[in-house]
Amino acid sequence: MTANPTSGNPDRVEPVFCTIVPPHILDKVARSGDSEFASRARRSLERDALERTRRRMTTVIGTRAAAPSYADAGAERTPHRTIYDTRHTTTLPGHKVRGEGDAVGQDATVNRAYAGLGATFDLYLKNFSRYSIDGDGLPLNATVHYDEDYNNAFWNGEQMVFGDGDGEIFLDFTLPVDVIGHELTHGVTQYTANLAYYDQPGALNESVSDVFGSLIKQYSLGQSAAEADWLIGAGLLAPRVHGVALRSMKAPGTAYDDDVLGKDPQPADMDHFVTTGRDNGGVHINSGIPNHAFYILADALGGNAWERAGQIWFDTLTGGELKPDSSFADFARATAKSAKTRYGAAEEHDAVLKSWEQVGVPAQ
Fold first, then answer.
1. Would residue 242 show up in a list of annotated catalytic residues for this protein?
2. CA angle, 226 as apex, 244 and 21 as ends, to 5°?
3. In angstroms, rounded to a whole number, what is the distance separating the alpha carbons of residues 136 and 129?
4. Which of 13, 108, 311, 315 gets the most CB atoms within 10 Å of its CB?
5. Helices (H), the chain
6. Phi and psi (nearest 5°) for 64?
């Protein structure tokens, strides 16, 4: 397995099934005393398990063809978006409802998915010169209205899929643009560092998606690091839920505290690292630590977070230094090296070292 699969055979990438709502949240809801909430959560968990198994079997069997090249040296680099609608079934990809360049339709969910794919494409191309998530113009496909009352959104290694939520706990999963950016960034990681989806490398995989999901949101809103809320999934929780989002990069562990969802379990530093056998070793939980390190860095550097702080993370993700089983310390050292390579022994490098020091991860 190469550190940068796209530099060689694209068949060597290992796509994973990644959901925006962590299983520990749905597990908690599934044990709720409210039978309606519980049944919907169990249905979503069962659907996730089925899709996860399908993804694993597809990878093992090897039916995924080598990614064709979409890049044309003489062509303008534009997105190639297609939105599908399953009409509340689970048959993917569903019926095509909007293609690239098609006019805005009456379905707001379709329009948000289309715009979110575009916002993600724009950030990667305009700020990091990356042509789509694979760097080679890969078409961006998304399916909306998946299943009934489905409380999740996921990247299955090939496309985005959005549920409508149940309206009681979660709302439409196309509402937060950072959810779209988060899931598509799993595709970027798939085609670059290929971080494994367990323990610390899995938490890094999740954190990288949170980082760039947040940057896509900030970029699309024109927000500086100081103006951003640093929340992942703000606007996704229904009004009855006591919480503001799924995760907070600025203050991990504070995103929600609800009688049905439970309390946000994310740690902000290594002193509170969570050891668990659930959620692939806590990939959605311990991601709070590298998330917090990035927030500290962006806050220290100021300005637009997608510029210097984001550039350092992008250089690290795509630079070929990371291994699939990279630990937090491996990633921290790689970010320090990336900062020094791009900016020299300047404030950016010092800020990277200090950000990791504050969360208890050695970076040198």
1. no
2. 30
3. 11
4. 13
5. 23-30, 35-61, 108-128, 177-190, 199-221, 279-282, 288-301, 308-318, 328-343, 347-358
6. -75, 115
Measure the CA–CA gap between 221 and 304, rounded to whole angstroms.
11
Active site residue 284: yes
Encoded amino acid at 1, one letter: M
- How far is the C-alpha of 26 from the C-alpha of 40, rounded, in Å? 9
Main-chain phi, psi angles of 161, to 5 degrees: -135, 135
Catalytic residue among 145, 182, 186, 284: 284
Q: Which tokens go with 240?
A: 């009855």
Q: At what angle do helices 199-221 and 177-190 cross, to 10 degrees?
A: 130
Claim: this prediction has a pTM higher than 0.85? yes
Per-position pLDDT tens, the chain of length 364: 233 333 333 345 556 788 999 988 998 899 887 778 888 888 898 888 888 776 555 443 333 333 445 556 556 899 999 999 999 999 999 999 999 999 999 999 999 999 999 999 999 999 999 999 999 999 999 999 999 999 999 999 899 999 999 999 999 999 999 999 999 999 999 999 999 999 999 999 999 999 999 999 999 999 999 999 999 999 999 999 999 999 999 999 999 999 999 999 999 999 999 999 999 999 999 999 999 999 999 999 999 999 999 999 999 999 999 999 999 999 999 999 999 999 999 999 999 999 999 999 999 9
Cβ-count burial 67-93 (b if 16+ within 10 Å, e if not): beeeeeeeeeeebbbbbbbbeeeeebb
Residue 238: other Cβ atoms inside 10 A: 13
Instruction: Choose the catalytic residue: 51, 183, 321, 348.
Output: 183
Contacts of 344 (CB under 8 A, 6+ apart): none
